[in-house]
Design goal:
It contains 2 helices and 7 strands. The protein is α+β, with helices and mostly antiparallel strands and 73 residues long. A hairpin with a 2-residue loop joins β3 and β4.
Length: 73
């Protein structure tokens, strides 16, 4: 599994799951992100996540398609 990180901007408290997938180029579009999430392919903190608007905060870990992304502050 490939490890990666995403650092929140100082002004941001969280990032939504679908936006993270687009920024990390795991999903090409918002629609693609929605499909990946709705098919149950995304884990957040080890549990399947089906909400595309899930708010990810510092310390959360997302796993999808062989990539592990840790959210940093």
């Amino acid at each position: 599994m490939q490890n990666d990180t995403f650092e929140l901007r100082p002004t941001d408290e969280y990032i939504e799951l679908n936006k993270l997938l687009k920024l990390k180029q795991i999903a090409q579009t918002g629609g693609h992100a929605k499909i990946i999430i709705s098919e149950g392919l995304v884990l957040v903190n080890g549990e399947q996540e089906l909400r595309r608007g899930k708010k990810l905060r510092a310390g959360d870990v997302v796993e999808v398609e062989g990539v592990r992304i840790e959210i940093l502050s």
